[in-house]
Amino acid sequence: MWRLALRTLKFRRTSFVATFLAMFLGAAIVIGCGGLMETGVRMAAAPQRLREAPVVVTGEQTYDSSALTERHRIDAGLAGEVARAKGVRAAVPDVSFPATVLKDGKPLTEKSASYGHGWASARLTPYTLAAGKTPVTGGEAVLDAGLARRAGARPGSSVDIVVQGTAHRFRVSGIAEQRGDHNPDAAVFFTDDRARALAGGRIDSVAVLSEPGTSAAAVADAVRAEVGDRAEVLTGERRGLAELPGTLSSRRTVVILSAVFGSSVVLIVMFGVASTLGLSLQQRAREMALLRAVGSTPKQLRRMILTETAVLSVASVLLALAPGYAIGRLLFKVLTSSGVVAPAITYHAGPLPMATGAAVTVLAAAGATRFAGRRAARTEPVAALAESTAGSRWFSLPRLLLALFFLANGIGLAIATATVMEDGPTLASTAGPASVLFCVGLALLAPGLTKAMVTLLRPPVRALSGLSGQLALRNAATAHVRMAGAVAPIVLLIGIATGTLYMQSTENHVSRTSYDENILADYVLDSTTGGFAPGVVATVRATPGVAAASEFVTSRGFVDRPGGPADTDLRGVSAEGVRQSLDLPVVAGSLEDLRGDTVALSEKKAREYGVRVGDRLPLHLGDGTPLRPTVVALYTDNPKQQYLTLPAATLAPHTGDGLPHQILVRAAHGTGTEVHDRLAALAARVPGTELDDSSSLAGRNNQIQQILVSANYTIVAMIVGYAAITVVNTLVSVTRKRRAEFGLQRLTGATRAQVIGMLTVEGALIGVVATVLGTLASATTIVPYSLVKSGSYLPSGSLGIYLAIVGGSLLLVFGATLLPSWRGMRSPAVDTVKAA
Fold first, then answer.
1. What's the CA gap between 507 and 321, in Å, rounded?
2. How many CB atoms lie under 10 A from the CB of residue 348?
3. Is the peptide bond between 126 and the residue preceding it cis, with omega within 30 degrees of 0?
4. Above 80 in pLDDT, residue 480?
5. Which tens digits make up the pLDDT trace of 735-744?
6. Can you tell me the distance from the alpha carbon of 744 to that of 238, in angstroms, rounded to the nearest whole number?
7. Is-contact 42 345, C-beta < 8 A?
């Protein structure tokens, strides 16, 4: 059987190349998604500034199994307790806060890219003095060499540094250089006491240096016993998470993204491999019959087919390992460039995703071999004399049940999306797979559906296409199973691409318009130096032409409720200007009472949490701090902008930088451009302040809301690309198999033009059938998603998206059909028939 199988592979190159490509590309894509999943589950980062410490103690970054979005700081006294643990040589407290060096009144770095630390932590990178001396007094600082060079600073000179929104003058006591090829953020070092005071008295983490000869694991166990559940102890590659507060919150996004698309890819790959292999076996029906005629048993044929499949699947999996790793790296790069995860996170693709990709490919091939190979092996010897009868039977009870299973699950997910799921990040996790499942169900029933639709299309085709149409209709009637093999992958392509792209365009439109309507401010002041000092908003209000100004802070927190904490968006505002800055129509209480430990929320949220004005709402802020604010106002619900509103002075200290980064400004009526000029002059006096209109704030929010857009498009492009390759494989394989048929037609009087015309009509029929079925499948994603998002059955987005998808699919159909046929008909018809 091995020799026969290998000889068969040698002489059936075209069909086996198509099958090999389906397996190879499928395995590579599954391996890539598996690597992304493993990266999200492990969520590790190599340390940068703290790399010399084998153990790092930091604040617990989770609350009730949910990841915190802000840094959870720890008490400074914990460093002393850590130092007493067995095997600890030194416990170095570490703090990190924005510290922006100015030159000529302007920041040297953008987006708060330089940070302040205590000098004791310099040895953890390590930094060493290249010139000058260590800081001794609170008015001294050490700059890293890069900052000193750009600032033109040297030991003994003075520089202005913005900390906590205020510029302070420091004397440069020294210049520090780091060893190694790591690239931590630009650093400014103060005395340990001054750094701790500037950071608010608490510390970020404790770097643990172990005694010589003591293992990191032993020290970590001793430290855990000392600190208990008051802090988290990190070792190995997870130490870097101490430098990346809020990173764990992206784990859920990465895992959900890889799981949703990975499962869709697995399903599509299994279908693609099975359909390609099934088509290959279907085309070999005469070969199987001849083998039976010379004495082969069905068992021997099944063994031969299984051996062929094993050779192809093993070869494709082995060759797919490296491309699969590269695909995973590409997906991870898209996520890091989009801001979904920090670039410092380590990409992992171990044995598990490799094994998963191999298992999916092998199982898909084995399943196709079992079903398609079983029928081929049972082909009666007499069928060798009647090749035209091969492949005419397609219906079976198992196939019907499997199709109904996929269709029912697709419809079920669509109904769940429209009736059960709430508008939020998880909405796409049910809407997206609905069209994939429905596509697979339709593809399983494609022979019957194709035959029925061709029957409906018979009158217009006859009327419009003449003899070529007659030939195409006859072929479609007698070979509807073959035509369905071409229809099925195109249904997948159109259904998945249309559903996903319109789902994304609807999300973009709804997010942009709802945020625009919520913002009433005319201008926004934005700080790039770590936030605004408390007095800046008062200065803005005093500016002539300003009707109102409100600080603006964003974060995420958790509302404590009996069923478990519910994560929610948080907004911090100023009571004096919130009514003029945000569209929050009050129905009870007053937004002017938003001072101290208070909160305002929508009517819907109040009913959900069971509170009203005057009640206390138990919640935890983004850094894990518990709070029980009093409800002072309820406002009408905006389902697209659901958040709790707190005083900015209450929320800001529990965010990363501890200060508001934006100030919303409402201009007085009739002020024209004068107020803009005054605000621009004010921004020039506050270092690192940028002035823009409120649309920039809406644009930044849209960027945050749509942070997964590029990742979605990349993964969808891979899925669509795989489906497109499956389409080409299928059509080219079918067309090459029909060369003898085309030769016979030419020998009986048909011209090349008439044969090409017949194929053109067949391609049009395939395109029409696939477009109708694919559009129907995409509706299971588009309709429920649009209903939840915008209350409309129709999605938002250009009609051009749909036309481009359908047009691209038709180009694939005609290109993969007409080009091989035209090339094949360059040979004499007699030679083509003789070679069959």
1. 35
2. 20
3. yes
4. no
5. 777 777 777 7
6. 69
7. no
